[in-house]
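Researcher: We're teaching a course module on how sequence relates to structure. For the next exercise, students receive a sequence and then see the predicted structure as tokens, so they can try to spot secondary structure elements on their own. Here is the exercise chain.
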Amino acid sequence: MLFRRRKPAGLLEKVRIFFWPRRSFSRSFQYFGKRILRLTATPHAIAAGVAAGVMASWTPFIGLHFVVAAALAIVFAGNVLASALGTAFGNPLTFPFIWTATYKLGKYLTIDDFDGAVPPIDLSGRLEQLGWHQVWDTIQNIWEPILKPMAIGCIPFMLVFGLLFYILTYVSVSVFQNQRRRRLLKRRRVQLNGEQTV
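Model: And here is the predicted structure for the students to work with:
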């Protein structure tokens, strides 16, 4: 295959690239931005899809973000591909902030005397007590102390960031599509004028 690496990336290299891309995060974000702008759909569909992806990134259900984003995109009449691109909001740089913010807000909303101090959570200990094969018991064991506060705490963030990204994406896509339409019309006029003069 053309442009394939001579030496395949090893496991350590793949892990490093996952946490820190080869060409920096800013380059990756620029790529995602251009992919979103160039989607062929209405500004509303693209913006609703991106907002759905961003909203899904706030949920604590890791591994299901694409599914949640696609479901939200369908509900909002958004573009499913745009929703998948929108889930890039949840990445190794933002997840620590997302998890901390949703957990603290969830605890604050569900406990009257919560003072902001988060007690240490021995997640590995909880999982070892049950054994890895008992998935349902494991989920029940971590639902009440960890996932439930995060699921409640994520709702305000989902609404605020979803609306913010919807507006930003809608405006950006509208401007980009209008500029592209004008360029194509101008090029078509030049072609027609050239054909008439021949």
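Model: If you want an answer key for the exercise: The chain has one domain: 42-197. The chain has a mean pLDDT of 79.
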